[in-house]
């Protein structure tokens, strides 16, 4: 144990997430970022962010902004100032020229058409479609002719690495093309810029999607050319949609921000993505701290993982249950203010707003649902409701009896409230801000009627009128919450200021 901790402290794990800002930060990217982040945090190492925007045509600033905002939302904090490759273009050219100098790269003056022809010939001969290396030993320097810079890959031998997930992987050098490092327009290729920066940033481990596995031998040669110790690699299995095809927009939301908009909590999305391909016993629900503590590559699976939206939804519900109502109410205010009127928003901001959120919290799987249910409860006065789903529609006697029972309730409760107010009971236990926003009328709870008392009271009235508690509660729930399924009715009746409850319950008569 001691030793383990010591070795963790002494090692300086340095990893990075290196997205290309050619689209919004998607789920596959988040998972790559997460595994790097977990590994770094588990080892008390550093996690860096690098924006790989060398493709000037496809890279857009709005995507960079989205990546940064999404990483912040997810809490995947990075160390050091993020690098932007577009700011470093000269460096890559210099490094490529250094490689020419040291005999590891060369200028190739072949045209694209010529290279295409070489590939076709190779294919006809049953070989891999490769450049035929004809400029490798070329010594002339045709002035004014455009060229690319290619890596000079050894003609024999092999490269081998121990993938932390997949075990040993070996590539024969003959199968590795003398790939391009600098294009004819002077732009570096991914394989060059990635290694230059990974060397510059002193990366110790490269963890990324296994769509990059064929780049790894090329990059290993570059590390060796640069005389830099080859980092350790781990290639994460792909994420597939339910149809076992690579996850894409066809499968619905794929950007992190779209999940935020749908009402997912960052920790739920991270928990879900961590579990996609990684396990720790049969535990499903992990806090961020637990993920950091337990993460290791020993339990990352090799095969691709299928994205299961239902499981994500379930996990989100679990994490909503664990979150504090204060935080949930704040997320509602930050992410869904547009669902509220100005007045409702003011009410949602109060501590009574938080108490309302706390009542809804156990019943929802998305923060968006929480917001949807808070809106009518924070709206002042009566609300529009749709009575078409009420059970009494099929039974006029039930309707009449229920309406009479509700009227009876109102009569008794009104009397109770005025009596209490007269004897100077008031809403003193409510904060000044709550009273300012919600008014000074006390709630039944403040007058000593907690949810249990409300329950008993309604049960009794129901009995007197010959109707079941459920039948009495249904229209009350509808007019108070605007819904047939909602947070606990007795709790709400006890919590909300009586004048609000009263004005809404009065509407039962007109349904
Ligand atoms: N920019 C590359 C990508 O987004 C980075 C791959 C790597 O991690 O090396 O796929
Ligand atoms: Zn050539």
CATH class category name of the largest domain: Alpha Beta
The count of DSSP E runs of length 2 or more, i.e. the number of strands, is 12
Shape: elongated
Q: How many domains comprise the coordinates?
A: 4
What integer is the average pLDDT? 94
Examine the secondary-structure arrangement and name the CATH architecture of the largest domain: 3-Layer(aba) Sandwich
Largest sheet: 3 strands, parallel
> DSSP strand (E) fraction?
5-15%
Q: Strand sequence of the main sheet, in spatial order?
A: 1-2-3
Tally of helical runs: 21
Low-confidence stretches: 1-10
Helix content: 40-55%
CATH superfamily membership of the largest domain: HUPs
- The rounded distance between the terminal residues' Cα atoms is 69 Å
Heterogens? glutamic acid, zinc ion
Task: Tell me the CATH topology of the largest domain.
Answer: Rossmann fold
Helix and strand composition category: mainly alpha
Q: Rg from C-alpha positions?
A: 32 Å
Task: Provide an overview of this structure.
There is one protein chain. This protein is mostly helical. The chain has four domains: 14-81 and 239-313, HUPs (Rossmann fold), CATH 3.40.50; 85-236, Rossmann fold, CATH 3.40.50.620; 323-378; 387-510, Arc Repressor Mutant, subunit A, CATH 1.10.10.350. The chain has 21 helices and twelve strands. It has a three-stranded parallel sheet. Strand 9, helix 7 (216-225) and strand 10 form a beta-alpha-beta unit. Helix 6 crosses helix 7 (216-225), helix 12 packs across helix 15 and helix 16 packs across helix 19 (469-481). The longest helix has 27 residues, at 396-422. Bound molecules: glutamic acid (GLU) and zinc ion. Residues 18-20, 52, 194, 208, 212 line the site of glutamic acid. Zinc ion is lined by residues 108-110, 134-135.
């Amino acid at each position: 144990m001691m030793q383990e901790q010591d070795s963790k402290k002494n090692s300086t794990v340095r990893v990075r997430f290196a997205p290309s800002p050619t689209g919004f930060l998607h789920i596959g990217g988040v998972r790559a970022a997460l595994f790097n982040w977990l590994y770094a945090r588990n080892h008390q190492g550093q996690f860096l962010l690098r924006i790989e925007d060398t493709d000037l045509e496809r890279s857009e600033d709005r995507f960079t902004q989205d990546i940064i905002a999404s990483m912040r939302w997810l809490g995947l904090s990075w160390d050091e100032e993020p690098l932007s490759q577009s700011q470093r273009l000269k460096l890559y050219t210099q490094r490529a020229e250094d490689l020419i100098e040291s005999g590891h790269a060369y200028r190739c003056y072949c045209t694209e058409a010529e290279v295409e022809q070489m590939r076709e010939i190779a294919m006809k001969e049953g070989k891999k479609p490769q450049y035929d290396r004809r400029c490798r030993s070329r010594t002339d320097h045709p002035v004014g002719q455009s060229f690319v810079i290619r890596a000079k890959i050894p003609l024999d031998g092999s490269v081998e690495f121990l993938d932390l997930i997949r075990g040993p992987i070996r590539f024969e050098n003959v199968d590795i093309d003398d790939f391009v490092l600098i294009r004819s327009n002077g732009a570096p290729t991914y394989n060059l810029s990635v290694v230059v920066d990974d060397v510059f940033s002193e990366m110790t481990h490269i963890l990324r999607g296994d769509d990059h596995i064929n780049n790894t031998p090329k990059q290993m040669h570059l590390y060796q050319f640069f005389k830099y110790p080859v980092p350790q690699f781990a290639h994460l299995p792909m994420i597939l949609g339910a149809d076992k095809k690579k996850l894409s927009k066809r499968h619905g939301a794929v950007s992190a921000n779209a999940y935020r908009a749908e009402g997912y909590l960052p920790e739920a999305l991270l928990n879900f993505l961590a579990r996609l391909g990684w396990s720790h016993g049969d535990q499903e629900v992990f806090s961020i701290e637990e993920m950091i503590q337990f993460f290791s590559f020993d339990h990352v699976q090799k095969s691709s993982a299928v994205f299961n939206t239902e499981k994500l939804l379930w996990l989100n519900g679990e994490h909503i249950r664990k979150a504090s109502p204060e935080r949930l109410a704040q997320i509602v205010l930050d992410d869904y203010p547009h669902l509220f009127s100005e007045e409702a928003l003011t009410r949602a901001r109060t501590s009574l707003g938080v108490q309302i959120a706390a009542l809804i919290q156990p019943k929802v799987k998305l923060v968006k649902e929480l917001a949807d249910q808070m809106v009518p409860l924070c709206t002042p006065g009566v609300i529009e409701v749709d009575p078409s789903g009420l059970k009494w529609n099929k039974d006029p006697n039930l309707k009449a009896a229920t309406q009479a029972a509700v009227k009876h309730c109102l009569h008794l409760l009104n009397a109770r409230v005025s009596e209490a107010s007269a004897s100077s009971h008031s809403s003193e236990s409510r904060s000044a801000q709550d009273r300012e926003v919600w008014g000074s009328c006390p709630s039944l709870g403040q007058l000593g009627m907690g949810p249990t008392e409300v329950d008993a009271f309604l049960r009794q009235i129901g009995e007197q009128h010959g109707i079941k508690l459920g039948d009495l509660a249904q229209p009350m729930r509808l007019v108070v919450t605007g819904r047939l399924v909602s947070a606990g009715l007795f709790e709400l009746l006890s919590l909300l200021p009586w004048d609000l409850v009263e004005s809404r319950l009065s509407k039962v008569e007109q349904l």
